[in-house]
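quick one, two chains, predict together pls
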Amino acid sequence: MIDKTALHSNHLKHGAKMGEFAGYDMPLYYELGVMKEHEWVRESCGLFDVSHMGQAMIEGPGTLDFVHKIVPSDFSKLPEGQTKYTVLTNEQGGIIDDLMITHAGPDHYHLVINAGCKYKDMDWIKKHLPSSLKFTYFEDWALLALQGPKAEEVLKSVVGMDAADMPYMAMRPFEDMFVSRLGYTGEDGFEIAVHNDKAPALFEKLLAHPAVKPIGLAARDSLRLEMGYALYGHDIDDKTSPVEASMNWILSKERDGYFGSARIRKEQAEGPSKKFVGIKLLEPGVAREGAEIRNGSDQKIGGLTGGGFSPTLKASIGQGYVTPDLAAVGTKLFVNVRGKNIAAEVVRLPHVAAKTKSAKKKEAA
Amino acid sequence: MAELKFTKDHECLYVDGDLAWVGITAYAKDALGDIVFVELPDIGKSLSKGDSFAVVESVKTAADVYSPVDGEVVEANDNMPGDLDLIAKPVKDGGWIAKIKMADASQVSGLMSEAEYQDYLKTVD
């Protein structure tokens, strides 16, 4: 049985080519096509239905301690109304899921989890949840992502919310919505949580703005690849540690005692056995997930976990795992596509500079 | 006599004597979306009917191009990877990917005519 989001009929109305993703019938692309949708997000403002993702709340006295048990990041200094990207780790230090956690209020932490992981995540959380805490899954809430340089302007003119002073990764309640300044594209933008009943009308209202076009999952994927963001089940999984995944920046420096901390500490001290890097092809061709990465002696030293053509760079990019000795930026490698070696090199991620709110501020400074 | 032939896998052939210029149909181009790369076959490559001899990469996916006939690659469209506008053109006007010297030119009689292909398209999708 395939699920539908509250916006399913909106997608059909707007001519979406639909396809299955994580158990949902989702828009892959609309009439513009992947390339133009991708460019539209980078230049104007794209609207995505990401309601397939799970939204949940953990609340009660001592929630912070519980959060600190299930993720390796430090939330003790995170102000109310701010969000952090982190991962759920298992006892072996592997990644159960990557997620956003918002300090929603005193003893309230709001979670946005991946569609394909949500039942697994909920089982894991409930299994370890102290009886003093409450876990709520918001089954009937939709999530819309508004992404691109014109997102702030669109939010103001269509929704009536002035976000000029809203920092990156902030979440604010507005009327009957929760608006977060974040996304999966590297652009400035917002995710709007809204009840299913009100989602279709909001979707249409946003699309009526001339700067806004609907964007499917295919362009969502090419946009996130340009940013080097991980896609769960592809770039990371329950065997991969956050150290291997080059996510050291999310790890608490002080705190231990979370699930899998022993392996993570060990890998931080001694180095992981593989490392997640960005890859750029130096010769024509396209390399996708599953392509072997080889060294100069034609030995397999890793593989691509994601890859494709970058509409922004007009070049082929990818990401994947290599042995740590070949992980330095500038290292020359080969990516094997259908038996042919294509010259490539390790590059710094993101492939395309982020234009999120905080990145813009840094540019101006 | 030169003629156009079509396959169920959406290859298009411009048949000129024992030479088949092979590319993909407009329907295939539309289904693939934005094409970003074409991997050409090596000259001299010997093909059996059904062998993949080229790959068309779009933003969305990679699609194999299959040889509709037995034969040998005698020419590849070297202009194509550098000029992807070519792939949008009809096979005989620059949209061909490779020219295959057919081992048995009578094999094309088993392929669809343009009218038959148009009827076939109504049954797909």
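The two ends of chain A are 52 Å apart (CA to CA).
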